[in-house]
Each structure stands twice: as structure tokens, then as C-alpha cells.
Amino acid sequence: MIGRYAFSVAIGVVVTLSLLFVMQLLIASGKTALTKPRDRTNLEFVRVKRNEALNTADFTPEKPPKPPETPPETPPQDMDNMDPNAPTINIAPPAVTTGTEIGGPGGMNIAEGDYLPIVRVAPVYPARALSRGLEGYVDMSFTVTTAGTVRDPVVLFSTSSLFDRAALRAVLKFKYKPRVVDGVPVDVPGVKTRISFQIED
Q1: CA distance 47 to 44
Q2: Fewer C-beta neighbours within 10 Å, C or N terminus of the chain?
Q3: What is the mean pLDDT of residues 41-57?
């Protein structure tokens, strides 16, 4: 026990003396750094004269070329000198149809205000299906709202469940012109579509 105590005291004395020695060295080197004159560098600036001479000559634009002379007017035809016995050509009038039926989805006419697709967003190919090289399609049914958006999309048939989520996200971004009946937009339930997934070569 006494040996350990004496050893620790000796180590403490050695550490203290070494610290004092190092501090003395730092103080001595600091004094020389403060008293030593610093080297100063002189910077020389060269001022360049600015060229104030400006070209103030007037530039006159060239005259544009003369326009081409207008052709002389054709003299009016003398209707009195026309031969009344000259042969005539009979041209039948074009046939004009009055049918206004334009086919639209759902068996109704566009003129009656049926819904029309405006924006169809392509689906994002699922990474897992792409890595496996899978192709297929998803048959879906949904409702076109009065605002032209898609509501309540339902998967009717899918070749792989990997395509379901991507097809739902794509269908929800579709935009339609809503169906108008008697001037009022109405919902169109049961609209069906097919979302295909094919890997391009």
C-alpha cells in the first residue's frame, strides 16, 4: 500500500514538472513572437486609363428596295359581246345529308351531352412485375362524377394482382366531360375500361 502511494506521488511530481517546463517554453517563444518585427508587403496598384473615345458617327440605314410594280388591272369583260348560243355545262349540286347522329360511348349521341374521355393517364409499370417480365391487363369499372372525375374504381378482372394498385392509381387520374341531361350534369355508373401492361422492346 505504501509502495503504491509513493509511486503515484512520484508520477504526479514528474507530470507537474514536465507541465511547468512546457509552459516555460511557451512563454519564452511567445515573447519572441511579440517582439519580432513583422514583414510588411507593399501592394502596387496600376490604374489603367479608361478609353472614353466613343464612335459617335451616324449610321444611315440603307434604303429598302422598291416594291414590285403592281400588275395592270384587267379590263372588265364586255357582257354585251358574249355569244348567247355558246354551249353550257350542267353541274349537279353537291349532295348534302342532314343526319346529325354522332356515335358516342354508351350508345347515346354526343350532341345529347354524353360523357367523353378527356385525359387518360398511363399507369406506372410495377417494379416487381417488370423484374419478372410479366405482362397483362386489368379490367375495371368506375363511376364518372358530375365534375368529370373518377369515383369508386373496382377491379373486375386482373391477370396478376401485381397490376391492381397501379391500375387503380391510373384510373383515379382520368378526366371526363360529364354527361349532361336537360342541362344538368349527372353521374355515370358502371363505366368499364381495360388497363394494359406491356413491356416495350
Answers
A1: 10
A2: C
A3: 59
